[in-house]
């Protein structure tokens, strides 16, 4: 309905706009005007910078009178770098010359690389042939007639050393090895023996039963019939159930809600089944087309309640025209904090700080112009 009303309304064109959202400016404040075109031309054009004839650099650090500044070795370091570069270039030139020079063949060699030996040093000579023959023959060792082995550990008088079981272990290993070899031999014999075909089989693996023992026979058919028929149990004339808990005399038990709970479950199950049936019926029923629609879903309104009517056209015209706001001639700002009488408020240093910032900006601009 609202969309239809908006579509039917023809709005008047806006002839004039009065923007009254600007800030309130005090009467003693003067707003300067800026020539934007001249400002943009000055920005776009090139500025004629003055040439710096004299540079007054005061950026050097302040050195105390008792401090001694050592001379800078930068020039000597650069000289060494240049010398090293020249030496490197000379080495590359010499290497290139060596690569291009054709050397003459050497016909006479005299090795003068022997070490310098002091005259008072005597060098012994070794008969290498006899030495090598002695190594090849070998040495004849004398038999040891007596051995004095002192490598055994010292035992305290109260200690008893048990005999070693190493011999028994070695014998067990030998017996196990022999048994393993016999098992391998038997397995090999079994693999090579051709067994005769079995014509008569008589199972002699039944257990030995004492002759005095009698084995009862069971009629399996009657036994199975008895299991199938089942047994007729006698009715219990009286049951004495002692499994109930002992309840004190002063304890009151509330009635169990199990029956009502089961009834609620049954009702819920019946309702669920009816809902499923209704859903199935709705799915299967073919509805007739609706020709007459009367909406009865409006809310119930008390007869004593009066509903006001709104002139929507006048309301929309008021929105389209807008509201004329009165100019703020006087502002009564009461947002300042309440200061106690005994509290002293120091003057604000913001103006002095702003003056210092402006002076620093001017000084910085003049220094940049002088440097340029």
TrEMBL record:
<feature type="domain" description="WH2">
    <location>
        <begin position="219"/>
        <end position="236"/>
    </location>
</feature>
<feature type="domain" description="WH2">
    <location>
        <begin position="127"/>
        <end position="144"/>
    </location>
</feature>
<feature type="domain" description="WH2">
    <location>
        <begin position="311"/>
        <end position="328"/>
    </location>
</feature>
<dbReference type="InterPro" id="IPR003124">
    <property type="entry name" value="WH2_dom"/>
</dbReference>
<feature type="domain" description="WH2">
    <location>
        <begin position="35"/>
        <end position="52"/>
    </location>
</feature>
<feature type="region of interest" description="Disordered">
    <location>
        <begin position="143"/>
        <end position="163"/>
    </location>
</feature>
<dbReference type="GO" id="GO:0003779">
    <property type="term" value="F:actin binding"/>
</dbReference>
<protein>
    <recommendedName>
        <fullName>WH2 domain-containing protein</fullName>
    </recommendedName>
</protein>
């Amino acid at each position: 309905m609202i969309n239809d009303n908006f579509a039917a309304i023809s709005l008047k064109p806006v002839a004039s706009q009065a923007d009254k959202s600007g800030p309130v400016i005090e009467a003693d404040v003067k707003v300067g005007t800026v020539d934007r075109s001249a400002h943009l031309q000055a920005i776009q054009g090139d500025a004629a910078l003055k040439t710096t004839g004299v540079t007054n650099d005061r950026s050097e650090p302040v050195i105390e009178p008792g401090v001694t500044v050592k001379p800078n070795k930068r020039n000597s370091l650069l000289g060494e770098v240049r010398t090293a570069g020249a030496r490197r270039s000379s080495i590359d030139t010499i290497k290139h010359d060596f690569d291009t020079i054709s050397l003459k063949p050497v016909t006479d060699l005299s090795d003068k690389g022997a070490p310098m030996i002091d005259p008072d040093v005597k060098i012994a000579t070794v008969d290498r042939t006899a030495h090598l023959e002695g190594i090849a023959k070998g040495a004849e060792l004398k038999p040891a007639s007596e051995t004095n082995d002192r490598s055994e550990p010292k035992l305290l008088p109260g200690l008893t050393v048990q005999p070693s079981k190493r011999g028994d272990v070695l014998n067990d290993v030998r017996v196990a090895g022999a048994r393993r070899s016999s098992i391998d031999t038997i397995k090999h014999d079994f693999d090579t023996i051709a067994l005769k075909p079995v014509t008569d089989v008589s199972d002699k693996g039944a257990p030995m039963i004492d002759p005095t023992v009698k084995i009862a026979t069971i009629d399996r058919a009657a036994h199975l019939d008895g299991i199938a028929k089942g047994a007729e149990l006698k009715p219990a004339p009286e049951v004495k159930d002692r499994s109930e808990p002992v309840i004190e005399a002063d304890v009151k038990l509330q009635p169990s809600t199990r029956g009502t709970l089961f009834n609620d479950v049954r009702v819920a199950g019946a309702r669920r089944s009816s809902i499923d049936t209704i859903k199935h019926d709705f799915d299967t029923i073919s509805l007739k087309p609706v020709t007459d629609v009367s909406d009865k879903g409006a809310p119930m309104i008390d007869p004593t309640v009066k509903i006001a009517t709104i002139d929507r056209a006048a309301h929309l015209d008021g929105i389209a025209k807008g509201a004329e706001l009165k100019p703020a001639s006087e502002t009564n700002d009461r947002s300042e904090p309440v200061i106690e009488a005994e509290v002293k408020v120091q003057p604000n240093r913001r103006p002095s700080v702003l003056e210092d910032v402006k002076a620093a900006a001017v000084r910085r601009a003049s220094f940049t112009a002088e440097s340029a």
